[in-house]
Backbone:
């Protein structure tokens, strides 16, 4: 039984689709009500739930209702996130706080609720979704980079804390992905530099050794592996999915 947050589209939907194909029962959660129709396209036992991960009470209800209906929670994929980029001097308090609220607090609320359901069973898997820009943040992306760096630190701490309870915690850090979130970031960069979107997109792609933007399926394949018994001795890791853009 799995929950994937931020699953109405993009990486989250790709992850949910892969887990469903693997045979998992999946709850797709998103602040966008279209998540319900997205879940319907997967068929099977997939379902959609409207949830703002920045609201801790809403996240607690999401997990409680999932456990009440399905009897257990085996996997939490804390994927929900937003972009946002601006020069420091132009970043408002509200804009900074919103990025932190969704990208970092939302992950914290999600994994906390999941852990509360998993600890009594002494079993479970948590996968957080960070970003390579949490390790090496470009200009005009301070809030986003800070939020994703926080996700990495949180993941490592929780792996140590929850390991004795039989719960594995890992972080997947995507690189430049073919998703609307990334395209929006490139549009902002193009506008700031006075360039066309196409030229900035092509420049970004050329910087990737494998010569392409990543697809949601690339990230979903890793999440599927980390959730499986084949990864039973892997915890506390941050794994880049970036085509070699940021080798570590």
Residues:
């Amino acid at each position: 039984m799995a929950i994937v947050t931020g699953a109405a589209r993009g990486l989250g939907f790709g992850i949910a689709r892969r887990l469903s194909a693997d045979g998992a029962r999946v709850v797709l959660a998103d602040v966008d009500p279209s998540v319900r129709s997205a879940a319907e396209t997967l068929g099977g036992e997939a379902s959609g739930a409207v949830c703002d991960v920045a609201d801790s009470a809403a996240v607690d209800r999401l997990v409680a209702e999932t456990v009440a209906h399905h009897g257990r929670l085996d996997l939490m994929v804390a994927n929900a996130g937003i972009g946002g980029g601006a020069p420091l001097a132009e970043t408002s308090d509200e804009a900074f706080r919103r990025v932190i609220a969704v990208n970092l607090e939302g992950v914290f609320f999600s994994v906390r609720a999941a852990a509360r359901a998993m600890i009594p069973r002494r079993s479970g898997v948590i996968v957080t979704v960070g970003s390579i820009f949490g390790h090496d943040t470009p200009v005009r992306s301070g809030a986003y980079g800070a939020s994703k760096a926080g996700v990495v630190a949180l993941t490592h701490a929780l792996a140590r804390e929850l390991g004795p309870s039989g719960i594995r915690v890992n972080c997947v850090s995507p690189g430049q992905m073919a998703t609307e979130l990334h395209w929006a970031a490139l549009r902002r960069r193009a506008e700031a530099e006075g360039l066309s979107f196409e030229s900035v997109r092509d420049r970004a792609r050329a910087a990737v050794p494998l010569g392409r933007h990543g697809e949601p399926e690339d990230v979903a394949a890793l999440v599927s592996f980390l959730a499986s018994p084949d990864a039973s001795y892997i915890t506390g890791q941050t794994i880049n999915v970036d085509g070699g853009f940021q080798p570590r």
About this structure: Residues 2-175+215-236 form a domain with the Rossmann fold fold (CATH 3.40.50.720). The beta strands are 2-5, 26-30, 47-50, 75-78, 124-129, 167-174, 238-241. The chain has a mean pLDDT of 93.
